[in-house]
Design a protein that fits this description.
The protein is 26% helix and 21% strand. It has nine helices and eleven strands. The strands form three sheets. A five-stranded antiparallel beta sheet has the order 6-5-4-3-7, with helices on one face. The protein has a four-stranded antiparallel beta sheet with strand order 9-10-8-11. The termini are far apart.
Length: 336
């Protein structure tokens, strides 16, 4: 059988990665497998520099690995005369996903996260995938586990949401919103304005977020020309405009809007430092949790802990502090 000729690798000015072989057996085999997975995950292709950075090797070594692959590759120039992006031809990309029992059980543990969506088309698709995973998880084990009966670990290893919302009355809106987010379709809806009256909105839904067991949408409000966080519960008369598309901005990053315990908003503008001393009785609670990306926790000699945060918006902070009652003392700012 004839094979497509492998393209010649072009020189590139990739940044130098850390040299040397890391400790452990079968390093090259693992790297080749990692390279294949990296290429599968990036069907549009990756540069030589990106491969070197991902594998923690030099560009020269990355070039050698590409020459040693046993499958066909394509080298697509980003622009005429520019650097090339290496990819597996689309016809050769794997259509099946290989998964082990432990991986299946880990994914099944999160099923409870989606149960409030029951009744929606989205939930039906997730549940179908879960049933497939369940079939994988309940297969007889191999090696030392050969012949071991099914112990129903999927029922004993679970994620339990805290007071999740029930979206039974919002299944149609959820399906519209998911379709709009996944396929980049604009969406029309009615949403409460500042005075509580429903207003008509045209939005470009960028992301769907499960935050504090509720569904939120980060979307561009076309009329306001700003990204807003909208609550699914409050969206009425949703309609996905499936004959239109919008462009997702290249610089959009969900992480820029996630503010830990203090909501979903973008941290534009100057920040203000919040310092709170918390009683020893809640010290372990505070130290074991990710409250905000900027948090700094300092144990005090008397057993208390001092929590410092850098926030651009303090709206949610008073309510969070009051949740500790007399066990919290605000050091700064004085406005709190």
């Amino acid at each position: 059988m004839s094979r497509r000729p492998k393209p010649t690798l072009a020189a590139t000015g990739a940044a130098t990665a850390k040299r040397g072989r890391p400790p452990g057996k079968f390093t090259q085999h693992k790297r080749m497998a990692d390279l294949h997975q990296f290429l599968v995950q990036h069907p549009k292709g990756v540069t030589l520099a990106e491969i070197a950075a991902h594998l923690s090797i030099t560009p020269r070594s990355a070039r050698r690995y590409l020459q040693e692959v046993t499958y066909d590759l394509e080298a697509i120039p980003e622009r005429p005369g520019g650097q090339k992006r290496w990819r597996i031809p689309s016809v050769d990309l794997p259509r099946r996903v290989t998964i082990r029992r432990t991986q299946a059980y880990a994914l099944l543990a999160a099923r409870g996260l989606f149960e409030p969506m029951s009744g929606s088309t989205l939930y039906e698709e997730i549940d179908l995938a879960a049933q497939t995973l369940l079939g994988v998880a309940r297969r007889p084990g191999r090696g030392p586990n050969g012949g071991v009966r099914d112990t129903h670990l999927d029922q004993r290893f679970r994620y339990l949401p805290f007071a999740p919302k029930n979206y039974e009355r919002h299944t149609e809106a959820l399906d519209h919103l998911f379709q709009a987010v996944s396929d980049l379709h604009p969406l029309r809806c009615r949403y409460p304005g500042p005075e509580g009256r429903l207003q008509r909105l045209l939005i470009h839904p960028y992301a769907l977020l499960l935050y504090k067991d509720a569904i939120h949408c980060l979307a561009m409000d076309v009329a306001r020309e700003e990204v807003r966080c909208l609550l699914l519960d409050a969206m009425h008369d949703t309609r996905c405009l499936d004959d239109e598309r919008f462009e997702l901005p290249d610089d959009f990053d969900v992480d820029e809007y996630v503010q830990g315990q203090f909501g979903i908003w973008k941290a534009d503008g100057p920040t203000e430092t919040v310092v709170v001393d918390l009683d020893a009785r809640v010290a372990d609670h505070v130290m074991s949790r990710s409250i905000h990306p900027s948090q700094r926790v300092e144990p005090r000699p008397d057993g208390r802990v001092r929590l410092s945060l850098d926030l651009a918006n303090l709206t949610e902070v008073p309510a969070w502090i009051l949740g500790f009652g007399s066990l919290a003392e605000v050091i700064e700012p004085v406005s709190l």
